[in-house]
Amino acid sequence: MLGTLWKTASVITLLTGAASAIDLDIKDDKSIKSAAHTAAYGAMSYYTGNLTGHIPGAFPTKWWEGSILFNTMIHYWYLTGDDSNNPAVIQGMNWQSGDNNDYMTANYSSYIGNDDQSFWGLAAMTAAEFGLPQMSTEVSWASKAVAVFNSQASRWDDSTCGGGLRWQIYTYEAGYGIKNAMSNGEFFELAARLARYTGNTTYSNWAEKIWDWSSSVPLLNNETWIISDSMSAENHCATSDNVQWSINYGAYVTGAAYMYNLTNGASKWKSGVDGLLNTSLTNFFPAQYGGDIMSEYECEEKELCNNSEILFKGIFVRDLALVSTVAPYTMDDILPRLQGSASAAAEACTGESNDTCGVRWYSEKYDGEKGMEEQLSAASVFTANLVAFDRSDLATQAGGTNATSATTNTTDTRASGTQAASSASGTSANGASVLVGGPLAVTAAVLAGMMATF
Ligand SMILES: *[C@@H]1O[C@H](CO)[C@@H](O)[C@H](O)[C@H]1NC(C)=O
Ligand SMILES: *[C@@H]1O[C@H](CO)[C@@H](O)[C@H](O)[C@H]1NC(C)=O
Ligand SMILES: *[C@@H]1O[C@H](CO)[C@@H](O)[C@H](O)[C@H]1NC(C)=O
Ligand SMILES: *[C@@H]1O[C@H](CO)[C@@H](O)[C@H](O)[C@H]1NC(C)=O
Ligand SMILES: *[C@@H]1O[C@H](CO)[C@@H](O)[C@H](O)[C@H]1NC(C)=O
Ligand SMILES: *[C@@H]1O[C@H](CO)[C@@H](O)[C@H](O)[C@H]1NC(C)=O
Ligand SMILES: *[C@@H]1O[C@H](CO)[C@@H](O)[C@H](O)[C@H]1NC(C)=O
Ligand SMILES: *[C@@H]1O[C@H](CO)[C@@H](O)[C@H](O)[C@H]1NC(C)=O
Ligand SMILES: *[C@@H]1O[C@H](CO)[C@@H](O)[C@H](O)[C@H]1NC(C)=O
Ligand SMILES: *[C@@H]1O[C@H](CO)[C@@H](O)[C@H](O)[C@H]1NC(C)=O
After folding, report:
1. What is the whole-number distance in angstroms between the Cα of residue 104 and the centre of ligand 6?
2. How far apart are CA 262 and CA 255, in angstroms?
3. Which domains does the chain have, with CATH numbers?
């Protein structure tokens, strides 16, 4: 993940003036939409990529965060119906996908990590599933997600640890010697979502392979359901660090939920969903704060979260919203925690007399921190609560396009070109490189149906 400055605890003196609290009624969808709007507006106020002379989607010091901004705004649009940010989102998502549509854009490719790239791939996947409109001059969102998948599949590394993706891509990058949960978990999630979206077994076979490898090394423990963050490829992944981050759980539980849905409830995936939900809901919603308010506890309690880590909560609650949609039986466990977290976040978003959001929701008051990351996590938790109201819409579209209803976009020549280019630079031994074309594009009729929802 690309670096950012550490944030340190600070600034109690900012707690001045009458707070204009977000007045959230968690049982009222209009009230939730209003809270989501306030937080999303605050997040977009940090975005300048759509201004004249600026580069769309570019965040020079923290490139991966652009993918989180856009993925959050796609969820926000889809669940609230407010499409006012879509022009900026569509422009930025396309610009950063680069000449090959695979989010290995030249300006960043020399220091990109596998996890950075796949966060963009997952944003494109969300755009495909939710039917974000695409420009006629661009390939489909699903084609861009496939391009990311293909380049990652070509990097699968059997030379150490029996497989897995490395954290970083190039030998000169510091994280090259590491195999981590974030890179492999997101690759798993992308494969599982593509499998359900296209119905193509190439992706489900990969999802199985990534999951099985992850549980064969000390990364994903399929008995305790604890996920560690990193292992050293240099010591053959003999040990792991046991550091706990919510997004590692989010990626694996989301992928497992999509596989659960695709297989119509196969026990392998159900036990994965149950096990990972159990550990993550227990650990990231600490009993000491009532058990229903999310905390990225490894850094929040010490007040040492960096910008990346401040985004993790938002990514995780978005994942929970997807899980509750494709594995609806989980809703009863998930919803109270989304509600408790949103209610607390509303009280943490009371800064600067304009609803600026802090980091720690459990403090239930503004904690003096601010940034795009704080705004995005709050926007995500408000938005995620709308699954309690708009389930039928979300259910239709989060993967409603299966092999039957998807069609091959035979005119999508740029996607084929991309895939040929990706495979040229990687190995083709695993079969990933033959993913040319495929039933990816949403038909115009399906897209029209999606848009009619609003
Ligand atoms: C922020 O934390 C993440 C892991 O949680 C780490 O990968 C990243 O390098 C950190 N960033 C900085 C600038 O320290
Ligand atoms: C909220 O107020 C602060 C301090 O005046 C300002 O820096 C920030 O841009 C404002 N945020 C929004 C979304 O208007
Ligand atoms: C840039 O995007 C923001 C947020 O969607 C929007 O309010 C603003 O009007 C856009 N500016 C331009 C110049 O398109
Ligand atoms: C890469 O940098 C150049 C020069 O600043 C800029 O014109 C271009 O838009 C950038 N491309 C992306 C994808 O950020
Ligand atoms: C746990 O993972 C190991 C290694 O992949 C596998 O052999 C075992 O069957 C898995 N257990 C379950 C219950 O899936
Ligand atoms: C996790 O599993 C344990 C043992 O089955 C159970 O007591 C606990 O309630 C579960 N926790 C959650 C959050 O589901
Ligand atoms: C799969 O997801 C759909 C929503 O897209 C849901 O209606 C269905 O019940 C899910 N299948 C299973 C087995 O839970
Ligand atoms: C695929 O989607 C169509 C139309 O939405 C539906 O009728 C069909 O049952 C689905 N097939 C599978 C295998 O889910
Ligand atoms: C198919 O791809 C072409 C070329 O990129 C594009 O113009 C067209 O809109 C795409 N059609 C669909 C249905 O996505
Ligand atoms: C799945 O993808 C592979 C590789 O691109 C392709 O050969 C195959 O035809 C696809 N299967 C279906 C059912 O479309």
Report:
1. 41
2. 10
3. 29-416 (1.50.10.20)
CA 361 to CA 85: how far, in whole Å?
Answer: 26
pTM beyond 0.90: the answer is no
Q: Tell me, rounded to whole angstroms, the distance of Cα 125 from its chain centroid.
A: 10
Measured in residues, the chain has a length of: 454
Ligand 2 near 50 CB (within 6 A)? no
Output the residue whose Cα is nearest ligand 6's atom 3. Answer: 278
How many other β-carbons are positioned within 10 Å of the β-carbon of residue 324? Answer: 24
How many Cβ atoms are within 10 Å of 322's Cβ, its own excluded? 24
Phi, then psi, of 98 in degrees rounded to 5: 75, 180
What distance in angstroms lies between residue 42's CA and the mean position of ligand 3's atoms?
A: 13
Q: Which atom of ligand 3 is nearest to the CA of 50?
A: 1
Q: Which ligand 10 atom is at minimum distance from the Cα of 431?
A: 4
Contacts of 234 (CB under 8 A, 6+ apart): 160, 177
pLDDT digits (tens, 9 = 90+) for 85-127: 999 999 999 999 999 999 999 898 888 999 999 999 999 999 9
Distance of CA 348 to the CA centre of its chain: 23
Cβ neighbors of 176 (< 8 A, separation 6 or more) are 166, 167, 168, 169, 170
Please name the residue whose Cα sits nearest to atom 7 of ligand 2.
Answer: 352
Q: Residue of the nearest CA to atom 11 in ligand 9?
A: 409
Tell me if 325 CB under 6 Å of ligand 7.
Answer: yes
- Percent share of the chain, pLDDT over 70: 81
Note every long-range contact of 49-55, with CB atoms under 8 Å and residues 24 or more positions apart, other chains counting: 49/88, 49/91, 49/92, 49/95, 50/87, 50/88, 50/91, 50/92, 55/95
Within 6 A (CB) of ligand 6 lie 278, 281-282, 333
Determine the residue of 202, 204, 407, 423 to mutate for testing ligand 10's pocket, defined as the one with the most ligand atoms within 8 A of the Cβ atom: 202
